[in-house]
Design a protein that fits this description.
heterodimer; A: about 90 residues; mainly beta; Folate-binding fold; four-stranded antiparallel sheet; two-stranded antiparallel ribbon; 1 helix; B: about 1000 residues; alpha+beta; Ubiquitin-like (UB roll); FAD/NAD(P)-binding domain; seven-stranded mixed sheet; six-stranded mixed sheet; 24 helices
Amino acid sequence: MLYIFCPHCGSRSQNEFAYGGDATVKRPELNKEISDQEWDNFVYLRKSPRGKHLELWHHISGCRQWIKVERDTSTHEIFKTYKADELTE
Amino acid sequence: MSQNFRLDNIGMVDRNKKISFTFNGKKYFGYEGDTIASALIANGVHLVGRSFKYHRPRGFFGVGVDEPYAILQLERNNERDPNIRATEQEIFEGLEVKSVNCWPSVNFDIGAINNFLKIFFPAGFYYKTFMWPPSFWYKIYEPFIRMAAGFGEASIKHDKERYEHKYEYCDLLITGSGPSGLASAYAAAKNGARVILAEDKPRYGGSLLTSDVNIGNQTGVEWSEKIITELKSMSNVIVKNRSQVFGYYDHNMLVMSERIGDHLPKTQKYLPKQRLWYIRAKEVLISSGSIERPLVFGNNDTPGVMLSSAAKEYMKVYGVLVGKKPLIFTNNDSGYETAIEFKKNGVNPLILDTRKEPSSDIINEAKNLGIETKFSYVVVAAKGYKKVKSADIAKISENKKDLSNIENIECDCICVSGFWTPSIHLASQSGNKSEFNEKIDAFIPKKSKQRENTIGSANGKFTLEETINEAFDKGYEVSNKITENNNKVSIPTVVEKKSTEHDKFWCVPLPKGKSYKRFLDFQNDVAVTDIELALREGFRSIEHVKRYTTLGMATDQGKTSNLNGLQLVSDIENKVVPQVGHTTFRPPYTPVSIGAIVGREVGKHSKPTRKSPMHEWHEKNNAVFVDAGVWLRPRYYKQENETLFEASKREAKNVRKNVGVCDVTTLGKIDVKGPDAAEFLNRVYTNAWLKLPVGKARYGVMLREDGIVMDDGTTTRISENHYHMTTTTAQAANVLSHLEYYLQLVWPELNVNVVSTTEQWAGAAIAGPNSRALLMKLFPNTDVSNEALPFMGYKEADLFGIPAKIYRISFSGELAYEVNVESDYGNFMWEKIIEVGKEFQIQPYGTEALSTLRIEMGHVAGSELDGRTIPHDASLEGLVSKKKDFIGKRSLSRSAFTKPDREKIVGVVPLDKTTSIPEGSYIVKDPKAKLPNPKLGHVSASCWSVEYDNPFSLAIIKDGKNMIGQKLFAMSPLKNKTIPVEIVSSHYVDPEGKRVRA
């Protein structure tokens, strides 16, 4: 079970969190004309990298904040965690 | 019965406490502190089971977790506990155990015929034998395998014992209390670290319990007792015996099972039987020791053949002789220590040493004691079926290939020592890739992936001096990293006998013309010939060889077999062991009971139960409850002998005719507040929200980004910047997460806060033509007329002194209101409604009547919004704004969602007006069409329409809009029903919606 550092609460066990997928996906702006392809990329297509991955976790049984976690998908090593509005390196 | 094999002046069992137990129905006795194994051996019993495949007789091979054979079934109070290791289970008064994998008895086992049919059970026999014909699999092969395979039988009864979970954090977890565990724990604890020291056995000390050494002028046993006593007295140390750390998981999470009541006749009050510890450790020191490696020779699985270290431990810890005419077969000095112990206890052993002319302190001591030793000698085969009676021994040539001077000598046990294998299981589980150490012919951990270090003999350090020095240093080093203290304790001097190098020889060749089975894996009956066959058949990867032959599988996890198996594969392949590599060690290291894994989360406690504040009233009024997620909701209120069908019909009818009241507390409620709340709702919902006035409610539908409906509900503008959102019961938590996602990550510029208020409000839906009249009496000071409180209106009011909120919204399709009060007043509100409502013939109604009412009105719910439907499919397209953008809008223009024959919701009525249509039925054009019958859609919800007194269903079918009026069929292959039906509008009752506005 992972041990995730929540920037708001401190280190907590994985079972307090819900996984939220790739944190680098950006939602297209509202009211903007975009192609089917662009929209499909946003809704459906995700990379599944081996290695470093910046991802979202929701501290659902804690502060209820969404946070960003930089994790190695093959070793589970967590390099750094960020608040939702923090700039990532 | 006298114990012929018990020694008088040695051992740690309590001779003053005699304990009786039964094994296979026969009564035996032992002493407190005995295991089943030591007590049976003391009584001269060596036959305890039958092997997995060939049903060969099985005795004891080890003395602890290493035991591959002696797996028994414990029975007490009609409960069964399978997978009990006889070498670990301590005896208690009244203990009943029996053998497994044998029928009718362990002495006469019919399955033993497999031993003579062994040519039919080669490696991979499952894959070869049970292949064809395929039709045999289900009825013949599978039941046969189920009967033949496995050890023991699980109980199907409810386990009345209590199991607990515990979470613990520490600076340093140390797994094993041998010399390295004790020394490192002591060094770290003295340096201020919070330490947990876990020992699998009841006694602390590990190898110190049986070795003849001296630490700091004390014997090994004295020293370990002193250290443990001091550790126990320290507030920063937790010391646990009977506790196995069996799994090493991510981020230094380790799991340990503590056997608290397993050795007691009855679990003590206030104590669980077992406790599972989840331990998050900053650092881990693995001091799990090593297990003696077997030597491989003919019939080396015969009862009476056992590890030499086990024989020594039976003498020194339990005061038990495993035999009176022992043969020691060794390739290193460890066998001599066992021989010396036999000699000291008045038994004359014979040592066969595979080495030519070894010399060391220990060998000299044996010589001086007059122990007979034959060098360059091996055991060719054990003789005897249910117990060793003699052995064929032979001189082995220098190249270890040829045998000569074969002779038979009498013996009653063969103690083998093929050197030592470090227990690297935990390190391997942590992700540590091990490396092969040529000096000890075994793998040791290499580079840590997590914060762990392996020390002592688990790390290939086989002298006490090395072990103690390394452990004191490591204990200080890791504790210093954490505490930054510098309290170093002095390392005691160690006196031990020096030993010399071991012989790499491990597998005795077969004499000419003999085909003895030579076993590698004793638990899974894998012999040398099985590995040879697997390799001949082309298996190369050690992982494939493992699965094909079952080498190193099951509860044993290759504890004794692993290295010999690898050695053999390397020999045949002309490789060296590191080229072959080893298989993955998996948790658990030893079997863990299901009870411990489940813990307290059994039955009612498997999930929380949520109850509304009116729950007790419902109970008192004969409500029959239904699970709605984790909520308990009244399904119907039973009167006399009513069935569910009768009761729900009565309740629904009463709503249509008079007035009913339904507990709607479970609905999700979310407060949405902030200057940008309107803009936020406008983006979340498909319809327009910017112009909703204060004091008005609106129905809204929200989508996921893929265009699928996520949830629906009403949201009311309480004040300028404050909205009260409701969600369905099931989606409440998801909707909150969804809103938080968009506010925190997508549109952080919006100044809005959301918070769940589900538990803050108790809700009652008052529905039916009499509801306004009732409301007027409930709220005499509030104008609830149609003009003052129109459909979708909202008012704050006073309910007999209690502040209440009235929302004029309707799920039933009748004139209806939802009244909310703070949860604590919920029951008060409910009782007032019932009391005042009497004159209007009020009745409470449950979820079943609620469903009936909404289905015949064509209102959608979870069965229609099932994660596959877009607004159009549920006839909600009128709520989809064309002017503004919102979550998921772009998806709605995808081709699949816009095709002309897209599915749509319709009503379905059986032509005979009496046959109910099962939910989930298919709607088809031609019931006799060739299978698979092309289906138009499915029936999502069914009820008995109380308005028309006939069955009515909702269905979502292809081109639903143009299907109305058509005669089709509802087919339920599951219930074997085909019902001719007519497709009608989904708005079956009051299609214009006059009632809700009345």
